[in-house]
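User: Here's a chain of 357 residues. Predict its fold as tokens.
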Amino acid sequence: MNTIPTKPFPALHNAMWPGLVGKGPDSEPPIGLDTMLNLTAAAEVDGIRFEGVDLFLSLPHTDIDSPDEDLARLAETIAEKGLRVGSLVAPVWGATGGGSAMGDDAECGRFLTQVRKACRIGKKLRELGVRSYGIIRIDSATGVEEWSKDPEANTRRIAHTFREACSIAESFGERLAAEGEICWGGMHSWRRTVQLLEMVGRPQTLGFQADMAHTMLFTMGYNEPEDRLLPDDFDWADSARLAAAYREVAGALRPWTIDFHVAQNDGTVKGSGSHDKTGHHCQPTDAAGKLDIVRDAGAWLRDDDGSPTKAVQHICWDGCMFPNAVMMDPKTWQDILRVMIAVRDAHGWENATIAGR
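Assistant: Prediction complete.
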């Protein structure tokens, strides 16, 4: 008999894109979507299982140009495994058919085309009955070095593109979440990300996707030393100081946060395959991990007064660039599910009321 969680909200999801991100010809081969789904569906801890998945809309997983009949088969496959769909990653980068959000008209046009296609898939999956919540994930699709040639003008250009993306999303009944990472120009620090979100000024449509591993790098000032909150010689044994800095980052971005990734980081950066260096995801049991996952998740999932924000309907594990051998080990997913349950037990709630909706 399955255990009924005492706090059933938010739902527990697993990301499918770690099977693709950082993989490829100059790295390890991708792990197929069916394999990722099977690994997710098989994980169980004390009778509790993952309830859904978040999808990457790019081959060799899900074709951004999938016809309706392919989406129907995808929905059926996911539902048969007892899962549902939450957030979707729009492939907005040049290598996947998109373009820089601060590029010329052609590049921005490709960026917006990918957003439109992702929103169409999101709407279709809702119509098929396997998706009732979740966002479309975007970023600036440009590097920090290129952005830094004219920071203010380039940020204005990204904001303009994001506003156009918001109008597209609204036409499909979707919301967008921009994920700040140290590798994305204009979103590579907590201060710059807040600046961009405020400049876009569409909080009902565009929010922030907070990933615990990536946002921890914000405290260290990678690619934006002026915004660092921890000194260069920080003593990682000072857990209280890390928690305070992390809460400061979350305090600035939490009002915008509508999507959340549980993750661990060892304080280093990593890149593999075609992915630029960004926050290094670690296994939740990694002794080198710097975050207290359950404690630090509360910086995002609870308001300053300690009440659950209820701003997200699901939380998702992100383990980008894990080695394939790690991802093929069933114990990996049990360990991940266990910490996800602990996060929900600590910061979840019992009714389905969602803030701001």
